[in-house]
Amino acid sequence: MNRRVFVVVASFVLIAVFGAAVFFTLQSQQPQQTAASPEKPLVGAQAVESQPSLIRFHSPTFGPDDATVTIVEFFDPSCEACRAFYPIVKQILAEYPDEVRLVLRYTLFHQGSEEVSRLLEAARIQNVYEPVLEAVLEAQPAWHDDPQVIGAWEAAEAAGLDVAKAREDMQSERISSVLQTDTQDVKAIGIRGTPTFFVNGLQLTEFGAEPLLRLVKTELEKAK
């Protein structure tokens, strides 16, 4: 190899070495990305607050706002199972009056559900929601297959509802907005049947009175 060829080859080698050194130096100066640590799962009341589609400011509520445990029930007034569960939930509220609250969300799956839900919201405007709700549920076997829900109106009137005023109020934008929002949330959450319960954001997966009470007690224990 003559001197000229040797010089050319040596020059290429030096350039390659220098380029590699620059490359690795720049790489070492790049900011290192660390794997994000998984967020702690939210539990209890935090889980409820993190899921705004579970509770809306307009929802009917029983019990203290600062309760340790919040039961959210996706509820259809024309649903026979909802009627059967009402005294069970009421008993839980009575047993833990300062620690548990109930939030009702309207779920319009059955015939007559929308009209009766509007009736109930009109009763809320008149401050007779609870007695009207109980009367309508008690009378449910007489009206839930009736498209006119006559029995529901009769029961509501007997419980103290001003029917004429309620019929005016039930078509208001306020009540329509409540039902529209609830219907949107039912679809977003994926509610398929009623009643569907969430306790502090945790869905009740085993249907029944005992599983519901057990989940409530578990959440109460967590708060201690």
Looking at this protein, list some descriptive labels.
Glutaredoxin; 224 residues; alpha+beta; five-stranded mixed β-sheet; 2 domains; globular; 10 helices
Walk me through what this model shows.
With 224 residues, the chain is α+β, with helices and mostly antiparallel strands. It has two domains: 1-33; 44-222, 3-Layer(aba) Sandwich (Glutaredoxin). 54% of the residues lie in helices and 10% in strands. It contains ten helices and five strands; from the N terminus they run H-H-E-E-H-E-H-H-H-H-H-H-E-E-H. It has a five-stranded mixed β-sheet with strand order 1-3-2-4-5. Helix 4 runs antiparallel to helix 5 (129-138), helix 4 (113-125) crosses helix 8 and helix 5 packs across helix 7. The longest helix is centred in the first third of the chain and has 26 residues, at 3-28. It is globular.
Q: Concise description?
A:
Helices cover 54% and strands 10% of the residues. With 224 residues, it is α+β, with helices and mostly antiparallel strands.
